[in-house]
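Service request form, structural biology core

Requester: graduate student, group of Dr. S.
Request type: structure prediction, single chain
Budget code: on file
Notes: please return the result as structure tokens.

Sequence provided:
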Amino acid sequence: MTRVAFATLGCRVNQVDTREIQGRLEARGCETVPFDAPADVVVVNTCTVTSRADFSDRQLIRRAIRANPGARIVVTGCWAQTDPTAVAAIPGVDLVVGAAERHRIGELIEGLAKAPRPRLVVGDLAQGVSMAAAPRARIATRSRAFVKIQDGCQHRCAFCIVPFARGASRSREPKVVVDQVRALVEAGHPEVVLTGIDMGHYGADLFPRTTLAALLRDVAEVPGLRWLRLSSVLPAYFTPELTEAVTSLPVVAPHLHVPLQSGSDAVLRRMRRPYNIAIYTALVEKLAEAIPGLGLGTDLIAGFPGESEADFEGTLRLVEVLPFSYLHVFAYSDREGTEAARRDGHLPPRVIAERSRRLRALGQAKSLAFRRRMLAAARQVLVLATRDRATGRLIGLTGNYVEVVFDGPDSLMGTLAWVRITDVHPKRTEGERLP
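Core staff response, request fulfilled:
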């Protein structure tokens, strides 16, 4: 039995891709082992969303080679697709697999020998990428599970390399998704998270066409599902049908992530984002009014080329007044091949760093204020499969996406429990278990 170790960088979709690779290899008789254990094959799934991600990819690949000098090193993911030559130039890499060939990774690995030159299997994404369901990987823990319903992206945002790494938008058939969710719930997962790159586009490529809202209604009927959570959805996709689904289906968790990127219409136009501030604000106000205690997250880019001080101040003002519970802040960095990289008006690194710092500080203040409003409240939480590193206590995730640490036995992991919020710190929320 071939021992295979996995390492993943990047987004939730990347993590799901790794699970699918794991499932395919286990179906061929492979045994999954921890990354730091002796392995015959190490699969590294890479990210390329920022220049920092490329640097982290290199570090992780080299670490895998050092940890298992006799293993075959297989690299896949977004960096492998967009810059396979750079990946192949790292001494010790044996196989580079692109997105279109990822579903064939089992047969590609079989018979692969250590060789002076790595094998590159990276095709043209325009020829199509398989969305066939993978066998379910063996997962030791229960708690949350992730299901990929869509991949690729139809948009060409000026700063983003993802369409070049993942291709055009494509969807999984609704029955395949529902069957996956049902199997995960039957295996003991109370919460399922639907993930995708351009998830609001779900179903537009299928025949007959369908929608994300229709899929939510189908998945909501799966017996035993406690929480259904969505990953990021662009504001332009919130049709009346989708808004009604996320605000009325009891199984949908009171947590949404709606990317903003900038609080300036001028910057949004330069970014080629498919919405403006008026559309975004109206949507957020409607969602917050309809969903009590909504946990609302967003993405922001600091220092996009041409962003003036007035543009940035506009972003700060908008973030201050909207009911965000957390922010994901990204310092702008060029991605070769994108429109933004060719633009004039690049800002000095020190300006980008300072704007990033101010946004993160505002995000921390928003998070603290949101969590303080939960003090003394009783909340149902999904107990995660790992303990808090700083305190050694259990971690429970509320429906509105707040992690609460509290005392309890390992037997609670993967179950739903009730806790009372007892204290809130800048970086931690504490609770006590209720009987």
